[in-house]
Write a structure and sequence with these properties.
The protein is α+β, with helices and mostly antiparallel strands. The protein has twelve helices and eleven strands. Strand 8 and strand 9 form a beta hairpin. It starts with about 25 loop residues before the first strand and ends with a helix.
């Protein structure tokens, strides 16, 4: 079933218009100490042959194709049981992750301890780049590094429900760090009722804005599938996270769901807005019961059947399989957004073999849907077939 909602809320402009360049493939990132080490010669040669053979594809898809090539390379290296054996799903070889309580951004050669309330004096707040009901985000400078300065909106300081949500969202990010699948925390300050977080800046904006940008419109079908793969990995991580199986109650319609994710400078897709992230475990009868927000903000077509309202104020409880339903809708949206007629036929051909699988993702019975991990694996397999990797 193709999700056909028109994305009228998408921003028409690009957050970043600079050309995207394919990064070098000669090194991969060391998982233990963050050092670069040479890729084995035979692997590097094979990968370079693939890159050369499909140059016409890569020049249009840039890093999105490259990251799918990296996913393929790592899948082959670690074996087919990778997702079952590695709950962190870390397959970004160039991710600059640090230990818990430390961070590293572009231009830094080593990890630095999280910033504290005392360090806020060294941060120069510049322009406001985004805001929501409870918090606002500023571009800021810390010791010559461009960062994001996130704070509770001053006018919400005495509104306890909103104040609590903002702090909970920051606390969830802190608990989930470090991970390539969530926004990197650089520091935070909880003073009294105020909440402030310093995080990595996402120059490409949120996923909603990105898929409406000119950069995205130029991506070919494999580049778009690379975006979907990265998004699916985030869902797989959240359903197997260090703080348990989590679902995001704020994903009530397509535009709002896409806005929960950011696109980072190194082209990762990361979960960012985690104000309402309940723990679910069907075996222990722990299910989500999302009650926050206006009823009119909920799209019954986008949401899974078990999540839809049967009473205006009491939603049905549900588990992570509702996310899988939404992921299928988001897949169609990402693949077909801002697509030209000349590209649509190629996307149709790429999506045709996935039709039955995505149909399973939207089975009426949640138990019949695949897991988010299985979605990742299926998408990567389709990518490999489409690029003639087999």
């Amino acid at each position: 079933m193709i999700y056909q909602e028109k994305l009228t809320e998408l921003s028409p402009y690009a957050r970043n218009s600079r050309p995207l360049k394919l990064p070098p493939v000669a090194y991969e990132h060391g998982a233990a100490r963050g050092e670069d080490r040479p890729v084995p010669t035979e692997m590097n040669s094979a990968l370079n042959n693939v890159v050369e053979k499909y140059e016409s594809i890569i020049k249009n898809s840039t890093r999105w194709v490259y990251t799918s090539l990296e996913a393929y390379k790592n899948m082959e290296k670690v074996g087919s049981n990778f997702f079952a054996q590695n709950k962190d799903l870390t397959i970004y070889p160039n991710w600059r992750g640090c230990s818990k309580g430390f961070f590293k951004v572009d231009g830094m050669s080593s990890c630095f301890a999280w910033l504290t309330c005392e360090d806020l004096k060294d941060i120069k707040i510049e322009r406001r780049i985004n805001h929501g009901l409870g918090k606002e985000v500023f571009e800021a400078d810390w010791n010559g590094n461009t960062v994001a300065y996130v704070r509770l909106r001053p006018e919400r300081l005495h509104q306890e429900p909103i104040r609590s949500r903002v702090r909970t969202g920051i606390e969830n990010l802190i608990r989930l760090n470090p991970s390539p699948y969530v926004t990197q925390v650089l520091g935070y300050c909880f003073e009294g009722q105020n909440s402030i977080m310093i995080s990595e800046l996402a120059p490409l904006g949120d996923l909603r804005d990105f898929v409406g940008s000119q950069n995205y419109a130029e991506l070919d079908r494999l580049g778009r599938l690379g975006v979907v793969i990265r998004l699916a990995r985030v869902f797989a991580f959240m359903h197997n996270s260090p703080i348990g199986k989590r679902v995001n109650c704020d994903m009530t319609k397509i535009t709002r769901a896409l806005s929960q994710f950011l696109v980072t400078s190194d082209f990762r897709i990361v979960a960012n807005d985690l104000d309402d992230l309940p723990l679910v475990n069907r075996e222990e009868n722990k299910l989500a019961n999302c009650t926050w927000g206006k009823i009119e903000d909920r799209d019954p077509i986008f949401q899974a059947p078990e999540e839809r309202l049967h009473h205006t104020s009491i939603p049905n409880p549900f588990d992570e399989k509702a996310d899988v339903w939404k992921l299928a809708n988001m897949t169609y949206t990402i693949m077909y957004r801002s697509v030209s007629p000349s590209k649509k036929k190629g996307i149709d051909e790429l999506m045709a073999p996935l039709e039955d699988f995505l149909g399973r993702c939207q089975s009426q019975n949640p138990d019949d849907r695949p897991t988010a991990k299985e979605v990742v694996i299926e998408l990567i397999e389709q990518y490999k077939k489409a690029a003639n990797f087999l």
